[in-house]
Amino acid sequence: MAPQILWIGLGNMGRGMVKNLVEKGNLDKPVILYNRTRKRAEELAAKLPKGKTEVVESVEEGLKKADIIFTIVSNDAAVNGVFDTLLKGDVSGKLFIDCSTIAPETTEEVAKLVTDKGAQFVASPIFGAPAAAEAGQLVFVPAGPKSSIEKLRPYIKGVMGKAEIPFEDKPTGTSLKLKLLGNSFIINMVTVLGEGYTVAEKAGVSTDALKQFIDILFGGVYSVYSERMVSGTYWKMEEPLFSANNALKDANHAQNLAKSVGAELKLLEVSDEYLKSVADHAGGDKGDIAGIYGAARKNAGLKFENDA
């Protein structure tokens, strides 16, 4: 008999993950949904097959029924808040899988609190944009006891993900270290693109020509972010795909990680300044990371918004 799953956190990643879990997870019980804003849980449930989800009013209500609890929330404070509530209940024998992107130290502190209460904990941050979550093409990075990771695996490949980079029987913070380093690559890539498109426009090269070069030589995520910039999506979107605040949080954690081992991530310092400019212009929770292009434009005497 399949375990009962509780899902906490229905942002633009969580929604796609739940969709695939419901549709492909081979479950015999409805997925219990909890979100701080109940309306978001109800809207998702309405889009999924009838009887495949159950929306609860509180974390406590869902916890009583659950065997496996997935969490994916925005930052360290949110993770601590959720687990403060969860661990007031009886969690003995339950498995917690946190997919949030937070500091390695926070993860390890939460893992200790969970295991001290007789439960299991896996940290499994994910790589991939909301479109990858929707398509079930995420990369999972689970860390923790191998026996606990094995209980997660039925929901990764062919369900919510396409691959995993496991850290079996390693400290839970290990997966967050890789996640933060990976996100630093993405943040710096967006900065290179934003600056490049700005110079291309001002130098008379044209953004279209530069985009052709990028599509031919790099493709992939470079092309995805390029399209978001050149098309003007970076300033037109109603909900960010990767908010400036979350990118700033990740950049800060990555820089702290580097400092803790006597190294530096100097490029992130430049990206950090652009992200602060995006947050100032569009709002930290509203501005998208691709708005770094707009910030670079402003620095060069252009409008934040392009004319797309």
Could you name the key traits of this structure?
308 residues; three-stranded mixed beta sheet; 11 strands
Structure explained in plain terms:
This protein has helices spanning 14-24, 38-47, 59-65, 76-86, 104-116, 130-135, 146-152, 173-202, 207-217, 220-230, 233-236, 244-260, 266-282, 292-299, and strands at residues 5-8, 31-34, 53-55, 68-71, 95-98, 120-123, 126-127, 138-140, 143-144, 161-164, 167-168. The protein has 308 residues and is α/β, with parallel strands linked by helices. The protein has a 6-stranded parallel sheet, sandwiched between helices. Strands 7-8-10 form a 3-stranded mixed sheet. It has a two-stranded parallel sheet with strand order 9-11. Helix 9 packs antiparallel against helix 10. The mean pLDDT is 97.
